[in-house]
Amino acid sequence: MEKEKQFMDRLEEKGVSRRGFMKYCTALTATMGLSSSFVPKVAEVLAAPKQRPPVIWLHLGECTGCSEALLRSQYPYPDDLVLETLSVEYHETIMAAAGHQAEENLHMAMKKYAGKFICVVEGAVATKYNGGYGKVAGKSFEQIAKEVIPKAAGVICIGSCSCFGNIPAAAPNPGGYKGVGEVLGIKTVNIAGCPPNPVNFVGTVVNYLLLGKLPALDNLGRPLFAYGKTVHDQCPRRSHFENEEFVEEFGSEEAAAGYCLYKLGCRGPETFNNCPVAKFNDGTSWPIEAGHPCIGCSEPGFWDKMTPFYEEL
Ligand code: FSX
Ligand code: SF4
Ligand code: F3S
């Protein structure tokens, strides 16, 4: 109770009311596919976690958009989750330490929490030229991944780069980039998207803290609660040519269908993600609502497979 009160006080200092926090928990619970009876439990996990799992967060070949999306888009919830609900031992973007001190932190955390920490990986692994395309502290991404990941209790790949190789692996892929699971020959939990929706990462972590297990995954390692349906299946623009009222409003079936972005090259029909329901930036909008076709960012090999973007499927 005391912990929860302190958490609420901190949120209030940031201008967030208890009501606002509960609204976030309600949306998160719905996104996770749980019934509303779980809302108080989800709130408790965020506000007063019984355990703070240690996390080592690796950055490999990527643009850091995934961390940025997570830490900035829905202030203050995901950043509070990352910084307070989890015990982040190593994260290059947000840690104060640099150079040798940072390396020391990483090795100390690996030792202290061996077999217990969650490894979150952002970015793909360069495999050509002895990993010459990217190194941290003189070690290639592959060396780092092989050193850290086998010691973790579980690994969550955040962003399509660590999940599937993504943009770093786009043709002609000079660095020989690949996804983490492929390089290490392991199964990873894949929070796909470029960047992924922060709520899908938060939902996965909360599922683990609340139910003591990872959510059910599809055959690509993506949590089904978020990636179980296509964008097209959930798209509000779809209803325009299927709903008589809209057809009437637009004057003809053809005009109503024009509101759908399919002819502009929308990849929604072959992309699995919950963007139409979860939306981005605190529910503000998402690509198709903003008028741009989906480009298929949560699918394996998206850059090579989905380009050229503006051609009809
Ligand atoms: Fe990749 Fe994430 Fe795209 Fe960027 O780190 S999924 S390039 S948004 O940032 O890895
Ligand atoms: Fe499907 Fe895209 Fe059209 Fe939406 S805009 S209905 S996702 S094709
Ligand atoms: Fe990505 Fe398409 Fe959603 S481009 S963000 S999966 S609408």
Plain-language structure description:
The chain is of the alpha/beta class and 313 residues long. The protein is 42% helix and 10% strand. It has 17 helices and nine strands. The chain has helices spanning 2-13, 18-31, 39-47, 65-72, 77-85, 99-112, 141-148, 160-164, 180-184, 198-211, 224-227, 231-234, 239-242, 244-250, 253-258, 275-278, 302-306, and strands spanning 54-59, 87-91, 118-122, 125-126, 135-136, 139-140, 154-158, 177-178, 189-191. The protein has a five-stranded parallel sheet with strand order 2-1-3-7-9, sandwiched between helices. The chain has a two-stranded antiparallel ribbon with strand order 4-8. A hairpin with a 2-residue loop joins strand 5 (135-136) and strand 6. The radius of gyration is 21 Å and the shape is globular. The N and C termini lie far apart (54 Å).
Cofactors, ions and other ligands in the entry: ligand FSX, iron/sulfur cluster, FE3-S4 cluster
- Overall shape: it is globular
* Total helical elements: 17
H/E element sequence: HHHEHHEHEEEEHEHEHEHHHHHHHH
First CA to last CA: what distance? 54 Å
Strand content: 5-15%
Total beta strands: 9
Helix fraction by DSSP (H/I, runs of at least 4): 40-55%
The biggest beta sheet reads: 5 strands, parallel
Q: Name the average pLDDT.
A: 91
Unreliable runs, pLDDT <50, ≥5 residues?
none
Return the structural class.
alpha/beta
Radius of gyration: 21 Å
**Cross-sheet strand order for the largest sheet:** 2-1-3-7-9
Task: Give me some keywords for this one.
313 residues; five-stranded parallel beta sheet; binds FE3-S4 cluster; single chain; alpha/beta; 17 helices; two-stranded antiparallel ribbon; binds ligand FSX
